[in-house]
Amino acid sequence: MTAKSRKMLLAVSSAVFALGLGAVGVSFAANEEMPIPKPVLHAPGPKMVPVPDFTPIVDKYGNAIVKIDDSDTKVVGGHQGQNPFPKNSPFYQFFRNFPGAQPPQKEKEEALGSGFIISPNGYIVTAGHVVRGMHHIVVTLTNHHAYPAKVVGLSVRYDTALLKIDAHDLPTVELGNSKDLKVGQWLLAIGMPFGFYNTVTQGVVSALDRSLPHDDEYIPFIQSDVPINPGNSGGPIFNMSGQVVGINDQIYTNDGGYMGLSFSIPINTAMRAVDAFLAHKKLHFGWLGVDVQEVTPQMAQALHLKEPVGALVANVEPDEAAAKAGLKTGDVIVTYDHKPVYSVGSLPPLVGDTPPGTTVPIGILRNGKPETINAFIGTMPQKMRHAEMDKVVDIHRLGLRVSGLDAAEKKALGIRHGVFIESVYPGPAAEIGLHEGMAIQEIDQQPVDSPEQLESIVKGLPAHQPISVLIRQGHNSLFVVIHLPKN
Fold it and tell me: Which residues are catalytic?
């Protein structure tokens, strides 16, 4: 190649190179250095929240979580419509034509739940439904040491139970304040789903003060998306400070599996029951004395309200707190003790959690105009507290577990004395056909008015001697004979 050819090729190459860079807005002479491009500046994005680290909570409090189960044989009902007892049983003639009777059968019951230790000497908190009906509760620690447990107290309305095991120097959790929770905060659950020890799941607070129907209307539930499965019930949920702020209670599901909706009992609500149990006091609920209903959009229009919120008063009971305060039928309760009442379900937990004897301001809409009245909150009547098992006792010598009957229940059964049989397990009671749902009125011709009284009487009875027991089933009573083993 001649010098002239080389010179022409270089010129063409430089021109092509310059044309290529020019396509991106950059050009320079062949003898210049290529400039360093400047970075393009973007607007600052949202600040990234660091992923939480739950390991300190698990390390510190994991050993304070326990498994609760009951694997003993339980005497339960069987096929409906048959005589519940064999022909040689003293109950055979009595229940020969009893409608809907079920013969007692023995089956293996595998109840399972979680709990957490609140004191080094063995007090444990769990959900009430976990242990209700259990006759032989076993608490197992994470080191697999198992202990028999007794129920100190159980509240059905708060679905909270307090257990006691005979142990010392146990690890404990730290209790927090569920009122400080906010939607969106991280939560951590530790429990025993399906029996898997110390299973950890996490999520966030989805909503607060959720109301659920039926027996749970007095619990302002914490809703979260923490995965909860069978066996998690009764276990704790922690905040990011490592404090227990709730008790895992139930899930919302169509098929029995987790669907992202979990509900927990606020720890403040649960501890109200626990404190009463520890002090050996009855758990009292506030009482307003009204029937309320939902404010639908059509009802809001009919009442000339701007929006369908609050609880519409449908009835005011005479001589109760609401009537004395001047509340009237047709009033719409929109606040209670300065807390909003968005719907009818918001009101019962607020009233029930109020200590009787407290004066509370109630915001209402009367004829569409706002007013405030002050109500002196009363005590829930005894007839409404029939589900509260403030004291349940295992009578091991009989082989059954009993709870007290209040005045309304005794009246409904047509008896003056008695205790309710919660469950029966293998022993003298099961051998003669006693079963859950019956009432024991007398034993050894001595009237029984409380579980403690029955326990005391039974301790003093002779062994292997015929003892008379007066039983109530429905509206029928019958004397039976039982033989007790040695104490």
Answer: 129, 159, 233
To the question of whether residue 22 is assigned a binding role by annotation, the answer is: no
8-state DSSP, 293: E
Closest C-alpha to 194, from 132, 112, 258, 269: 112
For residue 73, CA distances in Å to 44, 148, 209, 399, 401 come to 65, 15, 39, 11, 14
- What DSSP string describes 101-129? ----EEEE--EEEEEEE-STTSEEEEEHH
Tokens coding 29: 């002479």
Flag whether the pTM goes above 0.70: no
Domains of the chain: 52-72+109-283 (2.40.10.120), 286-379 (2.30.42.10), 384-483 (2.30.42.10)
Note the pLDDT tens digit of each residue in 209-250.
Answer: 888 765 567 888 999 999 988 889 999 999 999 999 999 998
Q: Is 233 annotated as a binding residue?
A: yes
Please tell me whether 129 is known to bind a ligand. Answer: yes
Those residues with Cβ within 8 angstroms of residue 216's Cβ, 6 or more apart along the chain or in another chain: 159
Q: For the residues of 264-288, what is the DSSP string, one character each? A: EEEHHHHHHHHHHHHTT-----EE-
Residue 23 tokens, joined:
């396509």
Instruction: Find out whether 417 is annotated in a ligand binding site.
Output: no
